[in-house]
Amino acid sequence: MTKGYGSPASAPLLPLEESLRVLVVDDDPLVLRVLQDVLRVQGCETSTAGNADRALALLDNNSYDLIVSDIRMPGPSGLDLLRAVRSRQPETPVVLITGYASVETAVEALRSGAVDYLTKPFRLQDIEKVLARVREARGQTIAIHGDGGRHHTGVLGLIQIAEATISSRDVPPVLELVLECCLNALGADGGRIQLRESEGRPPLSVHGGDPSLVERLREWGATRDGGRKTRATDEWYGLELPIEGKRGLLGQLAVARWVERGVFLPDEQELAQGFARHAALVIENLALHASLQSNLLNTIRSFVYALEAKDKYTQGHSTRVSLYASELAKVLGVPANVAAVIRYAALLHDLGKLVIYESILKKPARLVRDEYTIMMQHPLIGEGILQPLGFLAEEARVVRHHHERYDGKGFPDGLAGEAISLPTRIVTVADAFDAMTSDRPYRSAMPFETALREIRKGAGSQFDPQIAEAFANLELHRLIEISRITPGSLDFLE
């Protein structure tokens, strides 16, 4: 970080021609504050509620352009609130948010009428897309003018931090950004963040600005009671704030500036407290991300089990496609990280069928045009379920494109050749082979030899020629072994 942060411009704060009325519902005050800050700079007037009962009370006397609600809360859940909104204000769009990647809640949310669902930590782009859709539906055009003042600089800094939390999985660089944004927003000359030792994390300190001020802050000492402290000397003014998480004090944020810049005014102290709250969110959200990553396999298992329980004819299909695709990736010499995407994406490729009517999935005859049109939506639905799970972003793209064709005649985007990603081209061949060699309600399975000839026949039209040839040359006994895998067996993921 650099020395000597200047004061930001003092232009007025974001006058808006028109704003959206948004109700935010979450039992976590920190999350409520983050969403308020982000929505405010996006031109929204926000109301907040700590639970569904309070939200329903607000709905009795108010109307909103958008409701954003956590799913898991004490008392009535976000899903309960969604159903109540559908009956009271059916035209009001609802977005559900959760800190837990769950196929059951995701699917139920979409089926119950939510326009989208998001996972914590949030992506700014996702929030912007939701607001854009709401504004488009209302025919609004929001014009934002001016450079913004100190608070605007602070809010933009908070958004920067939210985006950095998504892209970085390490606490120190994100905390450095928190401190840098705080110093810029306050016009402070130096600062430091000190984290206490906790379970699985050693003490941590980041600092920036004038080294002599940083040293003065270090000598000032750490807050032990969790309260706010100020200090005035003949040379500098200091402000120290607690970084408090759900389970208590995590550390301190301290900033200072030379005496000629003046004391930290009450509104500046509140702005700094906002950065301290965001520091707590950074720490806890990154810990949450680590937990989500460690539970990745369980998430995938949940998706696959839910999908295969819906249709006996597809039991084992996702597992076999994943194993066929993995064999193919091995033969093609695909790097390990890409092979992992292929393995997981193959397991999840038909996820969108979770919300396809069972009467269509289990129809004992070929689909008519209208039914086929509905079935063609499953790649997009599957992508939509996976998109909020940032750690499955690459897999989501494969899910979207697994029905593209090498000759450009597939769907949904009509991609052709190498515009289709390598993982997708591999999964497409494996998917087609297992479909041909499995029983369906309207036909019996093909013999392996016949299916392999069909794969070769589709080279250059449906399939990448090199990949089709590589698959057709896989050892037959290995393909037979995979075909006999017990449905629901995902031990190979370990």
Outline type = elongated
The CATH topology name of the largest domain reads: Hypothetical protein af1432
Distance from N terminus to C terminus (CA atoms, Å) equals 42 Å
Strand order of the main beta sheet, please? 2-1-3-4-5
Helices and strands, in order, run as EHEHEHEHEHHHEEHEEEHHHHHHHHHHHH
The CATH level-2 architecture of the largest domain is identified as: Orthogonal Bundle
| Overall mean confidence score, pLDDT | 81
The count of strands amounts to: 10
* Name of the top-level CATH class of the largest domain: Mainly Alpha
Task: Quickly give the structural class.
Answer: alpha/beta
How many helices? 20
Strand content range: 5-15%
Structural account:
Helices cover 49% and strands 13% of the residues. With 494 residues, it is an alpha/beta fold. The protein has a five-stranded parallel sheet with strand order 2-1-3-4-5, sandwiched between helices. It has a five-stranded antiparallel sheet with strand order 7-6-10-9-8, with helices on both faces. Strand 1 (20-25), helix 1 and strand 2 form a beta-alpha-beta unit. Helix 18 packs antiparallel against helix 19 (465-472).
